[in-house]
């Protein structure tokens, strides 16, 4: 018996599970099977069909429930499959309140699919608790589900977890938190009053950009039963091999996230001093408007940084000039990633809606990996310098082109004047004759 509670890093390496391998394998076995033989023709064993349950998946779900402090966790084929299940909790004619700075896939689901199910959706500024309370208490409405992110993706805005959870509870709504940016290593929304926490297993849990998955960790017997039924009925569970990839990733998640966070912090500080950068979004910086709140409800600022340059061309040049940062969607990988969210992960949000929500097209998002921080800073610095030089060169080329066009216009005007003068002289000769 331990004399103290183990830290999360230790618990990630030493999970407890009801599924004990009889051979003592250090790695959880992969039960790569669709069906399981039954004791008799009229009795069922613990597992019968992998859509309904699989031992490898059970190990993952038990470990996630322990990490999140949940009554039960469920592993889905993707983060969006998990969020789609949240929407299934809302009846036709029901209502969802969510943030105005959310993942593009969630925005697409709530904007395009939820209305087909007869569900209305209202987007509010989740950073303003008065706005949230007003939306939840709006006359003539009843809210069934509140979905929030904190920090948000990609602008890394901070929401008061306990405040929103209390407001949702007061109006009888389920409170669900997308915790993908933090994972249970850095933030535990259920401890702050949320009913459900969703974590994209694609990101920090698996951690190597080699699988997709989503986890719902749930409090309360009624919600557990509803989600178990929906997952089995719709067949959205994560497969055994993908569960094993997540279990493998969990063992090093704390180690990876510690390094990734340290790298992100240094990148954010570097970016905040660069003349080409007009704004840096990172909750670890004291200048971030949500810094104090975030550090009070989370164990660290995480490894996602976003910044603005004021120019889409400059931002595009930075993204494309970086060598150690792969240009790709998603985050949480061992490799550093970079993207323009408005053209990639959030492209499904219409441009006018993005503008209304304050999501600028020049925003660059970085997911810091586990590389050497000095190498990342040097590479990003070179990309910024190239973009700065490129911007100057483009400006010079544009000025030269404008001057050349002006000279062409003058030459054309002189030629036209000469033509008119010639025609006038010819006309005079005709009249004199």
Q: How would you describe what is shown here?
A:
By secondary structure, the protein is an alpha/beta fold. Helices cover 45% and strands 12% of the residues. It contains 15 helices and 12 strands. Helix 4 links the parallel strand 2 and strand 3 (120-124). One of its GO terms (cellular component) is cytoplasm. InterPro entries: Cys/Met-Metab_PyrdxlP-dep_enz, Cys_b_lyase_euk, Cys_met_metab_PP, PyrdxlP-dep_Trfase, PyrdxlP-dep_Trfase_major, PyrdxlP-dep_Trfase_small. GO terms for molecular function: cysteine-S-conjugate beta-lyase activity; pyridoxal phosphate binding.
The strand count comes to: 12
Q: Characterize the biggest β-sheet.
A: 7 strands, mixed
The overall pLDDT, averaged over residues, is 91
Structural class, by secondary structure, is: alpha/beta
CATH topology of the largest domain: Aspartate Aminotransferase, domain 2
Head-to-tail CA distance between termini? 124 Å
So, CATH architecture of the largest domain? 3-Layer(aba) Sandwich
Rg, nearest Å = 28 Å
Number of domains: 2
Low-confidence sequence ranges: 391-399
Oligomerization category of the chains in this entry: single chain
Strand-and-helix sequence, N→C? HHEHEHEHEHEHEHEHHHEHEHEEHEH
Give me the side-by-side strand order of the main sheet. 1-7-6-5-4-2-3
Could you name the CATH homologous superfamily of the largest domain? Type I PLP-dependent aspartate aminotransferase-like (Major domain)
**What helical percentage do the residues reach?**
40-55%
| Proportion of beta-strand residues | 5-15%
Could you name the CATH class of the largest domain? Alpha Beta
Helical segment count: 15
Modified residues (N6-(pyridoxal phosphate)lysine): 203
Coiled coil: 396-430
Enzyme class: lyase
GO molecular function: cysteine-S-conjugate beta-lyase activity; pyridoxal phosphate binding
């Amino acid at each position: 018996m331990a004399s103290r509670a183990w830290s999360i890093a230790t618990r990630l390496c030493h999970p407890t599970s009801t599924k004990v391998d009889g051979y003592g394998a250090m790695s959880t076995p992969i039960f790569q099977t669709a069906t399981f033989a039954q004791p008799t023709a009229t009795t069922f064993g613990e597992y019968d069909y992998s859509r309904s349950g699989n031992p490898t998946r059970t190990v993952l779900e038990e470990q996630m429930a322990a990490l999140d402090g949940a009554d039960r966790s469920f592993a889905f084929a993707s983060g969006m499959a998990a969020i789609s299940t949240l929407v299934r909790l809302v009846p036709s004619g029901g209502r969802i309140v969510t943030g105005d700075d959310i993942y593009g896939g969630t925005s697409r689901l709530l904007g395009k699919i939820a209305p087909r199910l007869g569900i209305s959706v209202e987007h509010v500024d989740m950073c303003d608790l008065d706005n949230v309370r007003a939306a939840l208490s709006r006359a003539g409405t009843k809210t069934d589900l509140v979905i929030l992110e904190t920090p948000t993706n990609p602008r890394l805005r901070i929401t008061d977890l306990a405040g929103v959870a209390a407001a949702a509870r007061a109006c009888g709504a389920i409170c669900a938190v997308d915790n993908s940016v933090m994972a249970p290593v850095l933030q535990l929304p259920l401890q702050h009053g949320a009913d459900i926490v969703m974590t994209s297993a694609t990101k920090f849990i698996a951690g190597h950009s080699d699988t997709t998955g989503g986890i719902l960790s749930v409090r309360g017997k009624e919600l557990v039963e509803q989600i178990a039924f929906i997952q089995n009925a719709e067949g959205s569970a994560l497969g055994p091999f993908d569960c094993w990839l997540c279990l493998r990733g969990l063992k090093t998640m704390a180690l990876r996230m510690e390094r990734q966070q340290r790298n992100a912090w240094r990148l954010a500080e570097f970016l905040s001093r660069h003349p080409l950068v007009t704004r840096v979004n990172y909750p670890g910086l004291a200048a971030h408007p949500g810094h104090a709140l975030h550090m009070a409800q989370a164990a660290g600022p995480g490894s996602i940084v976003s910044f603005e340059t004021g120019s889409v061309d400059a931002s595009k040049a930075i993204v494309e000039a970086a060598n150690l940062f792969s240009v790709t969607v998603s985050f949480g990988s061992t490799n550093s990633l970079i993207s323009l969210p408005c053209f990639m992960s959030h492209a499904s949000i219409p441009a006018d809606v993005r503008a209304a929500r304050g999501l600028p097209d020049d925003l660059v998002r970085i997911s810091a990996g586990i590389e050497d921080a000095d190498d990342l800073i040097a590479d990003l610095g070179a990309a910024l310098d190239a973009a700065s030089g490129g911007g100057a060169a483009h400006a010079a080329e544009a000025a030269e082109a404008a001057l050349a066009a002006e000279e062409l216009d003058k030459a054309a005007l002189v030629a036209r004047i000469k033509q008119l003068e010639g025609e006038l002289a010819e006309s005079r000769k005709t009249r004199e004759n």
